[in-house]
Design a protein that fits this description.
Radius of gyration: 22 Å
CATH topology of the largest domain: Aminopeptidase
Largest sheet: 14 strands, mixed
CATH architecture of the largest domain: 3-Layer(aba) Sandwich
Helix content: 25-40%
CATH superfamily of the largest domain: Zn peptidases
Distance between the termini: 42 Å
Oligomer: single chain
Number of strands: 14
Number of domains: 2
Strand content: 15-25%
CATH class of the largest domain: Alpha Beta
Structural class: alpha/beta
Shape: globular
Order of helices and strands: HHHEEEEHHEHEEHEEHEHEEHEHEHHH
Number of helices: 14
């Protein structure tokens, strides 16, 4: 297989281009889907594309359901009275409706189906609280949206999503998806606030001792707006002017409470950096590489879906999607069952003596799903660390100081090497073994039952029946 030239590898290991772009993206601050900050981020990426010498750099606008945050609070009444209204303790979850609810608090633990069923009789008319954790024994990740909708389906009038990682602040994340706004008000709280609420819900007052009192009354207050708006993708090309293209993608939007450094300013900066590296060997490429940083990923993959719907599928050779790819230099590639793409990454990792973790599960989480669901070969590349859960992601603390430019350069090298192989070894050509398309029905049959339930619950099931 064709290897990335040594001079390009050396450039990748010494470049500041991508890290400077990442720094600028985090300095923008709020890049929430549909916000002025998201557009500024996309404009900065497009400017980087131009500076890297890429062709057709520009912006592509599309419509989305927007959401704007106001103030939120929770208040406990009863023997233990406490009000939380500071943003490091409680925040609304995007896609929630505005509103208030006061009801007994019922803790459903990790929010598995079994835990919801066990608490079913108590949930009707109550406020449900679920952890962000998924038990290791569960077999698949349980998305917050699934816990939220399940709570509403059991009659809950409010939802509290508590972080399971200490010191990581309240988690945010979409709960409405394609059913915006959701049915009941929802907030995220820090692990510390959540632990206090769980203790009170179990009848254990501060100061210790069980009590026989009824579940405490909890009030939720959410102020927000759900209104249509627009988002934007940043696009560019490198390589020959072929009809088909290898797509290298990431999302530029981030939750409004965060700088979005690892999720996913790093991914957008990596796309631009890899584009710059490939521009230096453009004449080697047999297939065009299409660079896209999507808008509105965090609220329902709208930017990726816009591209998947607007581009003839036979013109998309394959998709390499980057998301959360800079918290270490340990690459992870979710292949979604496209083993040929996985084999290319394995060959690159072996060539660089780099660690690589792979997974075959067909996953609906990440922009690659907009393509996978259609049978288009697509993987998601991220990095792994020893920290459990999302770590700092989806909190105020997803900031630049958590990342290391040495990790960024290592990941850029590996992604550039893989993309180079896809665009030079027939991998980018129609019918290439590494990127053979699959039928929609084959993908449909490959989706685990749990994810079928999640997709249908969130209004994102793309198939009939």
């Amino acid at each position: 297989m064709t290897a990335l030239p040594d001079r390009v590898v050396g450039d990748a290991r010494t470049s500041d281009f991508g890290w400077d772009l990442l720094t600028d993206l985090t300095d923008i601050g709020n890049r929430m889907a549909g916000s002025a900050g998201e557009r500024r981020g996309a404009e900065r990426v497009a400017a980087a594309f131009e500076a890297a010498g890429l062709r057709n750099a520009g912006l592509d606008e599309f419509e989305i359901p927007g959401w704007w945050r106001g103030d939120s609070a929770i208040e406990v009444a009863g023997p233990v009275e406490r009000r939380h209204e500071r943003s490091h303790e409680v925040i609304a979850l995007p896609g929630t409706p505005a509103g208030e609810a006061s009801a007994p608090l019922v803790d459903v633990g990790d929010g598995t189906d079994e835990e919801f069923e066990a608490a079913s009789d108590a949930l009707d008319g109550a406020i449900a609280m679920a952890s962000s954790r998924t038990p290791d024994s569960h077999g698949r990740w349980i998305h917050r949206m699934e816990k939220y909708v399940t709570a509403a389906g059991h009659g809950a009038v409010g939802f509290v999503f508590r972080n399971h990682v200490e010191g990581s602040l309240p988690p945010t994340g979409e709960v409405g998806y394609h059913n915006r706004p959701g049915p009941i008000p929802a907030v995220g709280v820090s692990k510390e606030v959540g632990e206090r609420l769980a203790r009170i819900a179990d009848g254990d007052e501060e100061g210790g001792g069980n009590r026989d009192a009824d579940a405490p009354e909890l009030s939720i207050e959410v102020d927000c707006r759900n209104e249509p708006t627009t988002s934007v993708n940043a696009v560019a090309d490198v390589g020959p002017d072929t009809d088909g293209a290898v797509f290298l993608t990431a999302h530029v939007d981030a939750h409004d409470i965060s700088d979005g450094a690892n999720d996913n300013g790093a991914g957008s900066a990596l796309v631009a950096e890899v584009g710059r590296l490939l521009a230096s060997v453009e004449d080697d490429l047999d297939t065009r590489v299409r660079l896209v940083t999507f808008g509105a990923e965090e609220i329902g993959l709208w930017g990726a879906s816009h591209v998947a719907e607007a581009t003839p599928h036979d013109e998309i050779a394959c998709v390499i999607n980057l998301d959360g790819a800079c918290n270490s230099r340990n690459l992870r590639v979710g292949t979604n069952g496209f083993d040929g793409m996985g084999a290319t990454f394995e060959a690159v990792a072996e060539a660089f003596d780099a660690p690589l973790e792979t997974g075959e599960t067909v996953s609906p989480h990440g922009d690659q799903w907009a393509f996978v669901q259609e049978g288009i070969p697509a993987v998601m590349a991220s990095t792994t660390s020893e920290r459990s859960g999302r770590g700092w992601g989806h909190t105020h603390a997803d900031t630049l100081d958590k990342l290391d430019p040495r990790d960024f350069r290592e990941v850029a090298t590996l992604i550039a090497a893989a993309t180079y192989r896809f665009a030079t070894d027939g991998g980018g050509a129609a019918g290439g073994e590494a990127v053979a398309h699959r039928s929609r029905s084959a993908i449909r049959e490959s989706i685990a039952d749990g994810y079928v339930t999640e997709l249908k619950t969130g209004g994102r099931w793309p198939y009939d029946g």
